[in-house]
Amino acid sequence: MKTFDSPNDWTPGAARMLGRGLWLLLIVCLGWGITPARAEDSPAKPAEAAAEEVAEAAEDEAQDEDTSDAEEEDAEESDTALTPAQLFEGGEDALENWMEFSVGGLITRGNRAQAEQRHRLTRGMMGGLEDLHLQRDLDKKTTLLVDGRALFDLDDYKLRLELRREDLGYLRFGYENFRVWSGSTGGYFPAAGSPGMWSRDALTLDRGEIFFETGLTLPKLPVLTFKYTHRYRDGEKDSTIWSPTRPSATDFSLVRGLAPAIYDLDERVDIFELNATHQIKATELGLGLRYETGDLDNTYRTVVWPSDPAKWSLTDRQKTTYDWFNVHAFTETWLKKNLFFSTGFLFSDLDTDFSGRRIYGDDFDVGYVPSALGYTDLSGGSQKREYVLNLNLMAIPVKNLTCVPSIRVLREDWDAVSGGYGTLGASGETFRGRSEGDLLDVRERLEMRYTGVTNWVFTGAGEWTQGEGNLKEAGGLSRIGSVGVAPIARATEDERFFQKYSLGARWYAAPGLTLDLGGYYKIHDYDYDHSFDDTPNNSGNRYPAYLVMQRFETLDGNLRVTWRPWSQLTLVSRYEFQRSTIDTKPDAISGLRRTETSAMTSHIFAQNVSWTPWTRLYLQAGFNYVWSETETPTSDYTRAVLDAQNNYWTLHFNSGLTLDDKTDLNLGYFYYRADNFKDHSAAGLPLGLGAEEHGVTAALTRRINKNLRLTLRYGYFHYDEASVGHRNDYEAHFVSTGLQYRF
After folding, report:
1. Which of 87, 96, 177, 272 would you call most buried, defined as having the most Cβ atoms within 10 angstroms of its Cβ?
2. 392, β-bridge pairs
3. Residue in 244, 109, 255 with CA at minimum distance from that of residue 186
């Protein structure tokens, strides 16, 4: 049997075995938690004692007045009668614990992988322990908490244990594993169809973590905490880096990146954290240490020219290990009742080693076969150091005015080296690369809030960042013959100046009517000076050395109106406008002029309504519309690149109805539509989403008694996507039932 000698030995398979083993622990906790406590172990509750005194007084009074036995029983029933709501919530006994079991299934028609990805469910039957919560006072100062979940067919497990002792500390243990699904259909070329999909079955990726945490919280002493966390990702997911193919069997000049690709992920991360906080008079002090180590072994796989007889299987493996250490400290002090000062400092050091290979062969993970540019024996490393200082002051200089000035200083420096062996057919050569750089950023920020005008709140903020940096680059990947990119030698200095200004106001215009108005204006300026560059002006590796200036500019405004015309009806309306542009200025030697290289304009409308026409009924509805377009000068000269559209609208509706004192019904509907697909495959790769989705959900809950609740759920979903030739279309039905026991 395998033993776990170190944290890195934990695997998702072992974690799932742990999840199954936790069932026994959960059952033991349940049996112990629902066992009735002995009378001598549990003192009478104040409410129970009061009820007994009232009953005894009523009985004595009834005997003195010589009332009949029947009248006494009627009086007791009227005194202790509970409403249906009180009865099914446990009455005077708070039902703090519960467990809920469920079983259900997803039935699909069409692209089942897309359905599983969209709803994060697997087809077929699924179920288990959906939710568990157990809280138990071991004595007057000690509390045990247990939370859990175990849905086997979904590989969804969770366990959280906490033991807390007042004025002493706590112990926590947690474990969680869950699965996500993804399709692998790749791209679509309307004129010739699709190069196929990786698999009709959904790709699966397991993610999870295991942690242990303890804390010491003794009065008047520093609070100490330690936490260890192990995280992992293991499995496969789709990639949007599609491989080249020839959609036309006769036109070999027509090449499109359409072939599907996947990532095979195997990642492990271990984190150790130690923190201490302490209060000294008006000052709180904190100090923390964090050490993180990771092992990432990931592979990208795809088939190059899948429609050709001599297709190639590409395996691109990248392995990275790193060690990251940081120390951070903070202080918080009330200097006066209207003056608060805080500081923070962080230092971190990141060391990384990497290796890899990019191999074209007749299968995956084999030796190099065809004549394509790849590499083997890639190795290298990097180091990055970071220093951060934060100073913040909150002051109330006059009544109704709050000012918060702050300053942040960031310093970074890094260096990296790499090398390997480039391959092209029978030829090959070694390559090396190195780089080093540093930067210094200083950010000043001022926030203000004023409440001196009746029914108004005004806010404003300004933020300014000045920065400079240096970057030196040399070498690169291999160049064999005329294939590949030639090595470079380049030194770049850059200066940055960022500005952001925001204003906001809230007006309580009338009872039930509130208006919020706000917006911001942001500019990011970059200036580059290439003090040395050996690349020719017309070479493929000149970018980005020919740039001497870039400006990113954003203007945003928003309005929100909240109106309650009467107590049962609430309306929330929202509108936001945003425009972002990118201006670029090339080096004069390029012969190009400064131009607006990109402009994105967005309008967002939203309307939500909540109405409770009856105490047993609530209705909610919402509508959202987004119109967004990105323009580039390229679209003025060629149809190969069109202006990007991201327009869509959604509609949703939810309602809840109490059918009787024991039964609730919830109904929901949502609709989504995006119509941005344009078929220009004759000139370029058709992009943009064209999709439509409907969904109907229903849930019926029946309270059998104060301890038991039965729930039935149903969902119907329909998805239609024209932009991939309807290969992702599906219909899905989801049915489940759950039984909750509360105690």
Report:
1. 177
2. 342, 406
3. 244
Distance CA 125, CA 111 (A): 18
Provide the residue type at 242 as one letter.
W
Alpha-carbon span 416 to 725, nearest angstrom: 45
- Tell me how far apart the alpha carbons of residues 662 and 291 are, in angstroms, rounded to a whole number: 53
Cα torsion 536, 538, 542, 545: sign: positive
How far is 680 from 631, CA to CA, in rounded Å? 17
pLDDT attached to residue 85: 56
The two three-digit tokens of residue 421, written as one number: 């062996």
DSSP 8-state assignment for residue 592 = P
Q: Structure tokens of 430? A: 């070694």
Question: 137 pairs with which residues across the strands?
Answer: 143
Quote the tokens at residue 451: 């409440």
Q: How far apart are CA 329 and CA 283, in angstroms?
A: 13
Cα gap 426→367, rounded to integer Å:
13
What is the separation, in whole angstroms, between the first and last Cα of the chain? 40
684 residue type, one letter: G
- Give the Cα separation of 122 and 154 in Å (integer): 7
**Rounded distance between C-alpha atoms, residue 599 and residue 497, angstroms:** 21
Question: Hey, which residues does 265 pair with through a beta bridge?
Answer: 235
CA quadruple 188, 190, 191, 193: dihedral sign: positive
User: Under 8 Å CB-to-CB from 42, ≥6 apart: which residues?
Assistant: none
DSSP assignment of 448-469 equals: EEE--STTEEEEEEEEEEEEEE
Any alpha helices (H) in 65-138, and if so which ranges? Answer: 69-80, 84-88, 112-119
Q: How many helices (H) and strands (E) would you count in the chain? A: 5, 29
| Distance between CA atoms of residues 21 and 28, nearest Å | 12
3-state class (DSSP) for residue 348: strand
Task: Tell me the C-alpha distance between 230 and 162, whole Å.
Answer: 18
Q: Which residues of 493-512 are buried (b: 16+ CB within 10 A; e: fewer)?
A: ebebebebebebebeeeeee
- CA dihedral (194, 196, 198, 204) positive or negative: positive
Structure tokens belonging to residue 111: 């692209």
591: left (phi over 0), alpha (psi -120 to 50) or beta: left
Q: Specify the pLDDT at position 53.
A: 41
CA 208 – CA 149 distance, rounded (Å) = 13
Q: Which helix (H) or strand (E) holds 12?
A: helix 12-34
Query: Is the four-CA dihedral 207, 322, 382, 367 of positive or negative sign?
Result: negative
Coil, helix or strand at residue 214:
strand
Q: Which residue numbers in the chain have pLDDT < 50?
A: 1-12, 14-79
Q: Token match 């690349």: residue?
A: 535
Is 696:726 a contact under the CB 8 Å cutoff?
A: no
**Contact 670/654 with Cβ under 8 angstroms?**
no
Residue type at 635 in one-letter notation: S
Collapsed DSSP state (helix, strand, coil) of residue 94: coil
Dist. CA 299–CA 251, nearest whole Å = 32
Q: Please give the Cα distance from 237 to 239 (Å, whole number).
A: 7
C-alpha distances (whole Å) from 648 to each of 43, 188, 255, 394, 724 are 61, 21, 30, 42, 17
Q: Is the dihedral of CA 14, 184, 294, 356 positive or negative?
A: positive
Distance of alpha carbon 50 from the chain centroid? 50
Separation CA 383–CA 349 (nearest Å): 7
